[in-house]
Amino acid sequence: MQPATFLSETFPRQFARTQRLTVGEPRNIVVSPDGARVVFCRSLGGSDVVNSLYVLDVATSIETCVADMHAQHSSNTDPKLDTSAEQSRRERAREGASGIVGYSCDDEVLKSAYCVAGQLFITNFITAVTHKIEISDAIFDPRISPNGKLVAYVRDSKLCICDMSGAETIIATEADLNNDVTWGQAEFVAGEEMGRQRGYWWSPDSTAIAACRVDNSPVAITWIGDPANPMTQPRPHRYPFAGTNNADVSLHLFSVDHANNSLRVDVQWQQSQLEYLTNVQWTRNGLIIALQNREQTKLEVCAVDTSTGALSTIRTETDEHWIDLVAGSPALLADGRLAMCCERNGVRALTVDDQVVTSSDIQVRNIIATTPHAVYFSANPLADATVLHVMQCNLTDLTVSWLTTDTGVHTAAVGGDTVVIRSATLKDIRSTTRVNGTHQIENNAETCLLTPNVTMHRVGANKIATAIVLPNNHDGSPLPVLFDPYGGPHAQRVVCASSAYFAAQWFANQGFCVVIADGRGTPGRGTQWERDVHHDLATKILDDQIEVLRALPSLVQCADTTRVGIRGWSFGGYLAALAVLRAPDMFHAAVAGAPVTKWDLYDTHYTERYMGNPNTHAADYEATSLVAHAHLLERPLLLIHGLADDNVLAAHTLQFSTALLHHGKVHELLALSGVTHMTPQEVVAENLLLHQLQFLQRALAK
After folding, report:
1. Going from the N-terminus, what domains does the chain have, and what CATH number goes with each?
2. Between 401 and 257, whose confidence is greater?
3. For the ranges 63-77, 382-396, 461-475, 506-520, which has the lowest average pLDDT?
4. Could you check whether the bond before residue 26 is cis, i.e. omega within 30 degrees of 0?
5. pTM for the model
6. Reduced to 3 DSSP states, what percent helix, strand and coil does the chain have, rounded to the nearest 5?
7. What are the φ and ψ backbone dihedral angles of 503, each rounded to 5 degrees?
8. What DSSP assignment string belongs to 189-207?
9. pLDDT confidence of residue 2
10. Which of 542, 541, 585, 581 lies closest to 562 in space, CA to CA?
């Protein structure tokens, strides 16, 4: 039963309080290699952001809370007490919860190490005993050794290890304590754009560690200030703008038996030719790394000689446009073969030692897990990117099978013969998490106050995936239209999951026909579909939104296309502002949240992948700049930006606003003091919805 105090609350309050109805869901699922245990984090309910750690015994289906963060009265779970490195990691991961939000396990998944508010804890899954290891200062990213006897972590930019008594050894540090150099941490673009959140890796025998050394001194310094509190000193933030220097990243191997950089082996490669270290994997079959050139047109997978640091190339992938980095790929299999996700025959395919094992009508999305007998991966039919399924490749005969078939979005965690599948569908308001298709792990998330009224369409010659959301119990009367896209690479909005439409349904219930469309550049539709936006993140992306708008009267009769608004955040904010600049006859008002307004103000790895280097493609950057075309504004525009945003810097919106003012273009600006890119504060998230609604109602009034 919902707490009585929440029974009369509004959707914006519920949506904000529950962090978009995600708080209370089982998360961070790990399955032991024998399939006997399923470990996961979960909070007590939708109003509880503090996650505890649970273990499910697969044989008995009994769940046990092995680390209750509410019972740890001696520890503070406030994320504000985390190190600056952990706060940055949380922002890169868009993490808004507290308590246990990540953990590492030993090889057999018998115990775990994790950090709460900078303090180190160890939990034994068998005895359900948790103890705190006393460390002198706050730590970051603890990882237990495969044999479960040691823990590595980062403290004050040093890579350290300790035993279970807390006896510490510093493994890697800078002799001159250079504040620009860190050991064992991922650099900004690795965490924000590459999907590599970590900066060190244990050897499988627990005797050595591979660690990144990151020198940020070549990277431009920006300053993140808090104008609402002028006595607060701005903090420096190293940000690699497109076309400028990245951090210098190198990889080194250390023996855990020797302190302070002794017995160090330097991994050798030409950083000037292969600038990005995108992946590291150390298994019993060896240490492999993946390297990418600055242009992102070449990816090399290399084996590392751990005694000398020399590399030998085992796979090279090239692409004239770019090479996408795919989660879980490459994966070194137990028998020594290499599994990868590669572009083949117009789709992303699963390969095993360069043999394509998936058909040309399937788009592989990532590698979930590998076992000695199978590769588990996510994929969708090329004809329908609105669904996501779990698939399996048998490593004996390389046959492929579907593990999910129901229409929806399915993800998985695997260990031994145990498969845990999380499913979200349009039929169910909440997601389900099932173990081997039978036992359902309890989901403590609240049920949304709204039920999405959504229909799915494929529009035009390109069959653009489109969702239309109408008010519940709508009487058919004319409605102003609200486009609600993201529209950019690497993200979808049109999926067969109810949770994707909660906010859209609220806007619909306020009197809008809400339209969400995934056009060219969005994932899941094959190689050419994504590559169509190369060197131009504006024209075709906006053209597809316009095509859907023109087709709208044939899809739903109540759409009043004389009153069309558009809202979006991040890339969606860019697209919203672009729409009213380039197509004011079609789009009549826009809300642009945290928009990129000049692509040369965004980071290297993302921007150069699609736009090239601004030093050689200046015309493309100019053509897609909102700032350069501020003089075109004719429609109402609301700009929103968090002043503490370290991803899309507030400079984007402020420079755009300055350009608009220079051209005498009236607009509204909402600056959010102390707010980052993910707007985690409850009161901010709630009132942002209300503020946008009021603006759109006013701008689109008859």
Report:
1. 165-325 (2.140.10.30), 332-416 (no CATH), 454-699 (3.40.50.1820)
2. 401
3. 63-77
4. no
5. 0.95
6. 20, 35, 45
7. -65, -40
8. HIIIIIS---SEEE-TTSS
9. 39
10. 585
